[in-house]
UniProtKB/TrEMBL annotation:
The name this protein goes by in its record: alpha-L-fucosidase
Organism of derivation: Phenylobacterium montanum
SMART domains: Alpha_L_fucos (SM00812)
Lineage: Bacteria, Pseudomonadati, Pseudomonadota, Alphaproteobacteria, Caulobacterales
Any one annotated GO CC term: lysosome
Cross-referenced Pfam families: Alpha_L_fucos
Amino acid sequence: MGPWAPTLESLNARPLPAWYDQAKFGIFIHWGLWAIPAFAARLGSISDAFKTDYDRAVAMTPYTEWYANAIKVPGTPSAEFHAKTYGAAPYEAFREPFIEGLKAWDPAAWAESFRNAGALYVVLVTKHHDGFCLWPSGVRNPKQTGWSTTRDIVGELAAAVRAQGMRFGVYYSGGIDWTFNRRPILTLADFMGSLPGGRYPAYAEAQTRELIERYEPSVLWNDIAWPTDQARLNALFADYYNAVPEGVVNDRWRAADLASLALRLKPARRALDARIKKRMLESPDAVQGIIPPPVPHSDFRTPEYARFPDIQAKKWEATRGMSHSFGFNRNDTEDDYASSETLISDFIDGVAKNGNLLLNVGPMADGTIPEPQARRLKAFGDWLGAHGEAIYGSQPWVRAEAVTDQGMPVRFTVKSGDLYLTLLGRPTGERILIRDLTLAGEVRRLDSGAPVRLVQAGPDLALDFARPLDGAFAPVMRIRGAVASGLG
């Protein structure tokens, strides 16, 4: 027994473990059988797929990890690619070549690269929607024999990550498992209504408890929904917290209820699809990424390919791939990847608004991290190596942002009484003018330690640099003894 009881009152009284708030930057890993075909439709973002091809959008998303569903839908690019490349071979045929490719995988090299990037925690996809498990589970899948690795990928990576001083977490697809529900999924209502019943709730709970007992993950990251009722879910949370006192859970644990069960019926799905399509037609720009709705209990929220526009009282974690997919896509070019500067700017923006970033890596089938992804990890490591003081362990200030007279965004964080001001761009010259800001204090640049003088110019603040700015990306100023006013 431990201090946490299986009630919402007890669970919601538990404070957020400090390590998670302080860590700021984690690595997500989507790696599985889909890395062999490494293919998805190219319609842009997941939001674009739902806007432009709603009636089969789930099979048209850019997510390569959804390949097993996409090839079930005739006429999709994935189905055509599969037929041309693999003939009539089923998705299950990828199991043996994936397991064979594990001989080249080096978990220690992964962990070192993630630590060098500045990450303080790593979350591995242990079972995605295809149901394939990356650990030799002792819980038998009654629908698919031998549907797991024989090598303990989860355990080996957990040990390697912890040896580098990082925390280790696990992702589990609790709401979707295509070995239990094999019908093709086309629309958002199909997706929401595909939560398996029967023996699946007991299976998913047993596997999650196995992951907790074997690996003691610091993050328990569920996806889509959860197949048991809220009472059983509360008991799972309490047992997890009592077993892993500093563990955290995300916000995608929507328990099975009457509404979700009703969506198993086709008329209910059709009615929901009609409402969603009408809303998209009326507000085509309203859909940008995915923000899961609040649930009765979570430690943090998880916008996907999306961010919150202002400071949030509740902790959150932006999650995204470096390109439009989480899994590796063989067709991605440099133009498909967000630039390092965009990713780092969004990261800084999120931290200023009480968020973390869980940045995804999608390895190739043999475990190689693709060069465009490795290059972006290095860019994070380089920037955090010089400016991490403004990020790790920081908190939001009374305001998150400002702008210079040239339109360059400015973000703020605070730590130990110091204020950190980050210019999101490549500024040059001896003076920067920030609109509508009043500050006083001792200022130095984090990268060089060079002094900066603050000069009030009416409602605006000028930063005069003893050493002119040279165009380096996202320089940070530390303001000691900051006194501020004019915070409108």
